[in-house]
Every structure is written in C-alpha cells, then in structure tokens.
C-alpha cells in the first residue's frame, strides 16, 4: 500500500476507482502504471502526462510501456 504524501477529500474515492481498473490493466498485459501511461498516448483528448520517477528503473519501465503503443480501443472504451 502506498501512503499518500498529501490528502484530499476525494483521495479514497480515487484510490478505489484506480483499483477497479487493475483487472483491465492486467487484461491489457501490464501494471496499472503501464496502463495509465499507455492511456495517455491512446486518448486524443489527453495531451500531457505529468509524472515523477524515483529511480532510473521506473523511467525505463515507462519508456517500455509507451513503446508498446496505445491501448487497444476496446480497453479505452471500457474505462468509462
């Protein structure tokens, strides 16, 4: 479990929403983080992704995720 570095009224709601996407991320062949990174390059209305990485390994994982290309349209449609 990741402890938030800040709190917000809707934080718990956002965590639960992200958890509902984990099975879909696994179906798409990766982690929730990879799924989010690939979503950015899949959706025409999203133009920017702000991220922070703690290690070079994290950055390299992100690069590999983006190199896989956009998510399948069926996965993007199921996000809702």
Could you outline the blueprint of secondary structure elements for this entry?
Layout: H1 11-27, H2 32-42, H3 56-67, H4 73-79
Helix pairs in contact: 1-2, 2-3
Describe the structure.
With 80 residues, this protein is an all-alpha fold. 59% of the residues lie in helices and 0% in strands. The chain has 4 helices and no strands. The chain has helices at 11-27, 32-42, 56-67, 73-79.
Would you identify the regions where 5 or more consecutive residues have pLDDT less than 50? Answer: none
Portion in helices: 55-70%
Number of beta strands: 0
Rounded to the nearest angstrom, the radius of gyration is 13 Å
Please tell me what the overall shape is. globular
Structural class: mainly alpha
Order of helices and strands: HHHH
Helical stretch tally: 4
**Distance between the ends:** 25 Å
Give the overall average pLDDT. 84
Strand content: under 5%
Multimerization state: single chain
Main sheet makeup: none
Q: Which structural traits does this protein have?
A:
80 residues; mainly alpha; 4 helices
Question: How would you sum up this structure in a few lines?
Answer:
The protein is mostly helical. It has helices spanning 11-27, 32-42, 56-67, 73-79.
